[in-house]
Amino acid sequence: MKKVAVIGAGYAGLAVSIGLARCNAMVRCIDIDEKKIERLSQGNVPIHEPEMEGMLRRQLADQRLTFSTDMIAGIMEADIIFIAVGTPGQEKGAPDVTAIFSVTDTIAQHIRKDVVVAIKSTVPPGTCEAVQTRLHDRIRGTYACDVVANPEFLREGRALRDFLEPDRIVLGGTDERAITVVQELYAPFVAAGVPFYMTDWRTAEMIKYSANSFLAMKVAFINEIARLCDAVGADVTVVAEALGADPRIGNQHLSPGPGYGGSCLPKDTEALALSARQAGAPLAIVEAVIESNRLQQKYVVEKIKREWSNLQGLCIAVYGLAFKANTDDMRESPAIPVIDWLLAEGVHVRVYDPQAMNQAYEIWGERIQYGMDAYDAAAGAHALVILTDWQEFTELHVDRLERIMAEKVIFDFRNACEAGIWRRHGFRYIGIGV
Predict the structure, then answer these.
(1) How far is residue 220's CA from residue 177's CA, in Å, rounded to a whole number?
(2) Mean pLDDT score, 299-325
(3) In degrees to the nearest 10, what's the CA dihedral of 109, 112, 115, 119?
(4) Which of the residues 145, 264, 315, 417 is marked catalytic?
(5) Contact at 8 Å (CB) between 434 and 422?
(6) 264 is annotated as an active-site residue
(7) SS3 sequence, the chain?
(8) Which of the four pLDDT bands, split at 50, 70 and 90, describes residue 24?
(9) What pTM, to 2 d.p., does this model score?
(10) Is the pLDDT of residue 92 over 80?
(11) What is the pLDDT of residues 241-294, one digit of tens each?
């Protein structure tokens, strides 16, 4: 049974650790955050991710998964080391790969046997090659230590399910032995007939960036169509349904909203665009997607502003703070610029999200009010603004909201609710592209 070290206990690192343990590897997940590691060791997941906590506890009970802050011990014992640390975007779009190289140097200093280093983190083309060079320069042939690019394609809200039921697995590298070692770790997926793409480092890195940028393009496209539908009086929901019926297009990522967010699409589109400019092969479509997403967030704000000549002193309830449903992640959430703008206009903002309230407090503190539930947040409000399509918001008791709100206005920027129900209760219902 292979001994695996996973360095990084974020969304990807946790899903990889739990998933590999379920595939019968002996996994040690390592992170420098002592509080996080303590919680995980007790079977408590510090993020909201459906299914993860139950499976985590099963792997802990079966003793196939442990958590530690001791990176050196994990490196010295491992046969395979997965790097799953963050590569956050920087101001000019370049991903920060400092943590990748820091881990690389620690591996080079402390390995005591042949190992394979698999990079799960999203990194720009050329990074795996740089990591390999860095390792070889420091180890100088004492041990075999070869790098495999193994990008993840996990969606927040179903990260563990995506790991266990992958559409494809990408392995990039130059050393056939190293690629075979990682492929053997994925034996259950080989047996299940999951497609494997064996390629070089740069192609594997490019696959990840291309996938995320294409998804961002689909989101931006349907948002632009929604804006046009508003202008000409068409219905974007029917347009999207008809588009999605075409198998060449598909129906995923064709739901209009306030713009894409999260830890991946914003930074990965920026990073790919920057890499392309630096390579002298600029990507006009990706550049346009980035700008289109900015315009969509501004458009949301403009639609609210059209209802009142002066927002000063109004109370607006914002439903949904996480960048999408089934996660508590607010990184690059469209809710952030929208709420910041409302505050700048002198609006009293009350918010509610099923999972992201603590994260919101870290951003705004006492500048906004926090509802105990959807109805508490709406009490006395002049309008509701839905920014995240939690199922809870599609099941609201409209008659109850009618009684407690100061004015009956709802901005549904996910088109999540049944407009007719709200209108029958006298609400002015404002969707997007409908």
Answers:
(1) 41
(2) 94
(3) -30
(4) 264
(5) no
(6) yes
(7) CCEEEEECCCHHHHHHHHHHHHCCCEEEEECCCHHHHHHHHCCCCCCCCCCHHHHHHHHHHCCCEEEECCHHHHHHHCCEEEECCCCCECCCCCECCHHHHHHHHHHHHHCCCCEEEEECCCCCCCHHHHHHHHHHHHHCCCCCEEEEECCCCCCCCCHHHHHHCCCCEEEECCCHHHHHHHHHHCHHHHHCCCCEEEECHHHHHHHHHHHHHHHHHHHHHHHHHHHHHHHHCCCHHHHHHHHHCCCCCCCCCCCCCCCCCCCCHHHHHHHHHHHHHHCCCCCHHHHHHHHHHHHHHHHHHHHHHCCCCCCCCCEEEEECCCCCCCCCCCCCCCHHHHHHHHHHCCCEEEEECCCCHHHHHHHHHHHCEECCCHHHHHCCCCEEEECCCCHHHHCCCHHHHHHHCCCCEEEECCCCCCHHHHHHCCCEEECCCC
(8) confident
(9) 0.93
(10) no
(11) 999 999 999 999 999 999 999 989 999 999 999 999 999 999 999 999 999 999
Predicted local confidence at residue 89, as pLDDT: 87
Mean pLDDT across the chain: 95
Q: Are strands 315-319 and 428-430 parallel, antiparallel or unpaired?
A: unpaired
Q: Is 244 exposed, middle or buried (0-12, 13-18, 19+ CB in 10 A)?
A: middle
> Smallest Cα–Cα separation from 75: which of 16, 24, 19, 115?
115
How many CB atoms neighbour CB 139 within 10 A?
16
For residue 91, pLDDT beyond 80: no
Per-residue pLDDT, averaged over 194-199, amounts to 97
pLDDT at 142 > cutoff 90: no
- The tokens of 112 are what? 């005591």
Contact 80, 4 (CB under 8 A): yes
Predicted local confidence at residue 93, as pLDDT? 81
CB 204 within 8 A of CB 119: no
Count how many residues are written for the chain: 434
222: Cα within 13 Å, side-chain hemisphere: 32
pLDDT above 90 as % of the chain: 94
Sign of CA dihedral 247, 252, 257, 258: negative
**Dist CA 163 CA 19 (whole Å):** 6
Token pair listed for 377: 């947040």
